[in-house]
UniProtKB/TrEMBL annotation:
Highest taxon, organism lineage: Eukaryota
Species of provenance: Bodo saltans
Record's protein name: Bodo-specific multi-copy gene family, putative
Lineage summary: Eukaryota, Discoba, Euglenozoa, Kinetoplastea, Metakinetoplastina
Length: 669
């Protein structure tokens, strides 16, 4: 079509600042609310027959400079003859530019249920730390990479939303913030997936890629498509040929489009969620020479960000090992770990109910629900989700408790993507370690039930389990944490499972919770005996020797001054936990044995001395306070273990055990 030039155009263009910059004739996806809604800033949404008066009405209140009636006539003529490109340029020169809608933007680019951002509990320190380290001082020559190793269900999305809306809202509104979910970007139905596809071309497993540096190109594609999205203007790819030019174009285009003043400094920032999808791939050629290993694609993408800009990545990627840098990169980068998003404490959970979620929990379920979920925000919120009948598992389900509990377990399983069931052998060992508060290292190998070993089953570390969102690792306590509700009895093959999850966590039994959390007689004691057996299994599966050091079973639960009293003992519990029919049969070989008495539970474990291995005997475990006269009943060669009590016997005769150091259900005591 021949381009029509109108007499008044020169005057309008002059006041608009000179040369008319060609812009897109399509709307901005991150600014628009609907494809069919009329938008004052986008003539593509205007009816072609609109008059000057119609245009004047829609522009009313959105004009930044004076516009005459002749100008409106010019707008109408441009619309009539289809010169949308010129009309769009003029509108942007004269009209207020709409800011990026924060809620719509986050809903589009994050995996979220579109619920509004809520007040977070026990996250203030990390939000403040993230804000501080991403605030790069002027004149610095360092890129900043910040990461948080947080699993699914830990509240990652709400954390990101809260950080953006409270600390980086201005950057989002003027297009200087990119937020993406890697899992969402990988979806083949997502039109915004090109950058992710390009980065994955650099995977060491991709033998067909001929691109020299697809990771850098992917970063440039991400920036270019973001700029197109927030400005509505197509971008020349040559201006995004490398990361430095891409950032320069990003800053320049958003400054022009959003009419930012020269002294209005808003640093560009990239935030990526669910980054485990990139962390699982090694880069095909980029090697961390001092560490002697390839960089992951996540590390390579982070290092592609030029100084002095920042990137924040979060996900269940086990660990980020960007340091040490090679000699060139070391001077140009800073890496910060703000730590994982930890489960809520009991107090934080109580505050979240009232201040964040505005929900109530039945009084009998309040404490069991916290322990079922280990304080994981997503699992707590799932329990509050209402069914069509208006009840939830956590509230008002007294008459339909079994159905609600089964529905809740199904919802939890779905939320983890069946991760625990698909990785059952490793997830089960992680549950034993979590339930017994065993001390483990992130890079420690997970030893599994030998009956479940298969030739194709790969060896995992606890970091690998984090990557698969099986649980999280607390580096301070060295504990691995698995929410009990994530691995229930129905998920394990019971004939070959030595301990059912509900034997370690009685509140996994629907009957227990339906009774209002009423404790059965000796409920804690029985669960603790299974915890002792679980500790034994974790050592036995590592050594494959049925006799294991007693101090390893009770590691961390014995007063350091008394550890020497058990160093010379070994224990064999290879036949499991047995209930004896009578007191006369309570000392059974190779077992944890108990007799469920009227007043108390009597139990023992099968031991021997390292120096005299032919002599085997039962060592009693007492759950009630001991007096000297009770000790006289036991042979002098044997230990006496006192669980959560006090003893008037000499210290060299009774070893006191802190049950809270090796059981997660001491709240039942």
């Amino acid at each position: 079509m021949r381009r029509v030039v109108w007499p008044l155009m020169s005057g309008i263009v002059s006041r608009a600042g000179g040369k008319v910059r060609q812009t897109s004739t399509h709307q901005s996806p991150d600014v628009a609310n609907s494809d069919t809604q009329l938008k004052y800033y986008d003539p593509n949404t205007w009816p072609k027959g609109w008059t000057a008066e119609d245009i004047k009405k829609i522009l009313y209140g959105n004009i930044s400079t004076s516009v005459t009636d002749q100008n409106y006539e010019t707008f109408a003529n441009l619309l009539k003859f289809g010169d949308i490109r010129t009309l769009t340029s003029l509108l942007r020169a004269y009209c207020h530019v709409p800011e990026v809608d924060a809620n719509l933007y986050l809903e589009k680019h994050l995996e979220t249920d579109a619920s509004p951002a809520m007040r977070l509990q026990e996250r203030d320190r990390q939000i403040m730390e993230l804000d501080n380290v991403l605030t790069v001082p002027r004149g610095t020559a360092r890129r900043v990479v910040v990461f948080s190793n947080s699993i699914r269900g830990s509240g990652k999305t709400e954390f990101l939303k809260s950080f953006v809306l409270t600390r980086r809202l201005e950057a989002l509104k003027c297009g200087r913030l990119i937020v993406r979910c890697c899992r969402k970007a990988q979806d083949t139905r997502n039109p915004d997936r090109a950058w992710m596809t390009r980065v994955l071309e650099d995977s060491a497993t991709n033998s067909t890629s001929t691109t020299l540096n697809a990771t850098d190109e992917g970063l440039c594609d991400l920036i270019r498509t973001h700029v197109e999205s927030v400005t509505g203007s197509p971008q020349d790819a040559s201006n995004y040929s490398n990361s430095a030019s891409a950032y320069g174009s990003w800053i320049r285009e958003t400054k022009t489009h959003f009419k930012m003043q020269d002294n209005h400094d808003v640093d560009p920032l990239i935030i990526l969620d669910n980054c485990e999808l990139l962390a699982q791939h090694h880069h095909k050629s980029f090697v961390n020479k001092p560490a002697g290993r390839p960089f992951s694609l996540l590390e390579a993408l982070s290092l592609a960000v030029p100084a002095p800009y920042g990137i924040f990545v979060i996900g269940s990627f086990g660990t980020m090992r960007l340091l040490p840098f090679h000699s060139v990169t070391r001077a140009l980068g800073s890496v910060f770990d703000i730590g994982p998003l930890a489960p809520l404490s009991n107090a934080g959970y109580a505050k979240a109910l009232t201040e964040s979620w505005n929900k109530e929990v039945d009084v009998n379920l309040h404490e069991p629900l916290f322990h079922l979920t280990e304080g994981m925000p997503r699992l707590l919120r799932l329990a509050l989700s209402q069914e069509p009948q208006g009840v939830s598992f956590a509230r008002g389900s007294a008459n339909a408790f079994s159905r609600c509990f089964e529905g809740y377990k199904t919802a939890v399983k779905r939320s983890y993507g069946n991760a625990h069931e698909q990785s059952l052998a490793h997830a089960y060992s992680c549950l034993l370690a979590s339930s017994t508060k065993a001390t483990v290292q992130g890079d420690e190998v997970i030893h599994i039930n030998p009956l479940w070993r298969e030739p194709a089953l790969k060896s995992w570390t606890y970091n690998d389990a984090i990557f698969h969102s099986i649980g999280l690792h607390n580096e301070q306590s060295k504990r691995f944490i698995v929410p009990p509700i994530a691995l229930v009895d129905e998920m394990v093959p019971q004939p070959t499972t030595p301990i059912l999850p509900s034997q370690l966590h009685p509140f996994l039994d629907a009957n227990f919770i339906e009774r209002g959390g009423a404790r059965d007689k000796n409920m804690f004691e029985k669960a603790f005996l299974y915890a002792v057996f679980a500790r034994y299994l974790l050592v036995f599966w590592r050594t494959m020797n049925p006799w294991v050091p007693l101090n390893e079973v009770f590691d961390g639960a014995i007063n350091p001054e008394q550890v020497k009293l058990i160093d010379c003992f070994e224990v064999n519990l290879s036949d499991g936990v047995h209930e004896a029919p009578s007191k006369g049969q309570k000392n059974q070989k190779k077992t944890v044995t108990y007799v469920d008495g009227v007043k108390s539970l009597e139990s023992s474990i099968w031991c021997r001395k390292v120096a005299r291995r032919s002599a085997e005997f039962a060592v009693p475990l007492h759950f009630r306070n001991l007096r000297s006269r009770n000790i006289k009943k036991h042979p002098k060669r044997a230990l006496v273990l006192q669980i959560n009590g006090w003893s008037k016997a000499p210290e060299n005769e009774v070893v006191e055990v802190d049950a809270s150091a090796m059981s997660s259900v001491t709240w039942l005591w």
